[in-house]
Design brief:
single chain; 279 residues; alpha+beta; SH3 type barrels; 5-stranded antiparallel beta sheet; 8 helices; 11 strands; globular
């Protein structure tokens, strides 16, 4: 796939409205591919800009180049691991654009760069005012956190070295998205001489080990009954209110902290310190 072919696929969705049939089908396609990023199953109420990016990657066969995520800050971390994060440099068509609307340091929106004309760029974004839309920005707008450039077929592609890899190496690569998604992932592993069933077992072991190691002595917090939204803006599901969770990760923000909450192997989401009680 070239960069322009990926953009053409994204443009087909322009006008899609949240809660419409196309939006619901998009979220269903995101959830169908497992293992899901962070173990999280998207709902129709969730912020869906990154799910849109992920589904476009799935549909164009470029998930191994773009990665799969539903959280923009985590996606940036994945971009850096994949070696495609550019930061704030002038973009090209096909680049991923990320935003930090309030300048607080936490990315909260993502889309594709569809056109660059001088210093003006046109994007195509999911969940832009609850729809897929094209939006114009100065390329160096202060709200833009940075860009990532996937290695499409019109870019130089570094093919993973397939020799001398342990099963754990392969599983780690699967988790980082380097082998794409099923059924393409299974086929690629087979072509490279690996057993996809054994690789998946190791993937499951790594996920379980990470959760166990993080959760053993982790702080626990209880979500306040009157909490409204996650730090990332999504509405909090009713079953989360008043419940107790493990703290998988914490980070400082302006005026306090946010916690990444986990429960029985699943990542729940980022919560502000004002919305929880530390147990």
């Amino acid at each position: 796939m070239t960069a322009q072919q990926v953009i053409n696929m994204a443009l087909k969705y322009v006008g899609t409205q949240q809660y419409g049939s196309v939006h619901k089908a998009l979220i269903d396609r995101y959830n169908k591919v497992t293992p899901r990023p962070s173990g999280y199953k998207m709902t129709y109420d969730d912020a869906w800009c990154d799910a849109f990016v992920t589904v476009i990657a799935d549909e164009t066969g470029t998930a191994s180049l773009i990665g799969r995520e539903c959280g923009v800050e985590r996606h940036i971390k994945l971009f850096k691991q994949m070696g495609i994060w550019l930061g704030r440099v002038k973009p090209k068509v096909g680049d991923l654009i990320t935003f930090d609307w309030d300048g607080g340091g936490f990315a909260d929106h993502i889309g594709f760069v569809a056109e660059v004309s001088g210093d003006i760029l046109r994007t195509v974004e999911g969940n832009a005012n609850a729809r897929v839309a094209q939006v114009y920005f100065d390329w160096n707008d202060w709200r833009i956190k940075g860009f990532a450039r996937p290695k499409y077929s019109d870019e130089k592609v570094n093919v993973p070295v397939l020799s001398d890899k342990t099963m754990e190496d392969l599983a780690s690569e699967v988790l980082s998205g380097k082998w794409g998604n099923n059924p393409a992932r299974e086929k690629a592993l087979k072509v490279a001489g690996h057993d996809p069933v054994k690789v998946q077992r190791m993937v499951n072991e790594l996920i379980a080990k990470r959760i166990e190691n993080v959760g053993k002595d982790a702080d626990k917090v209880k979500v306040l009954p009157n909490a409204m939204t996650y730090y990332t803006g999504q509405k909090i599901a009713s079953w989360v209110l008043g419940a107790q969770f493990d703290v998988l990760e914490r980070k400082a923000i302006k005026g306090g902290e946010v916690y990444l909450l986990g429960y029985k192997g699943d990542v729940i989401g980022w919560m502000r310190d004002k919305d929880v009680t530390v147990m």
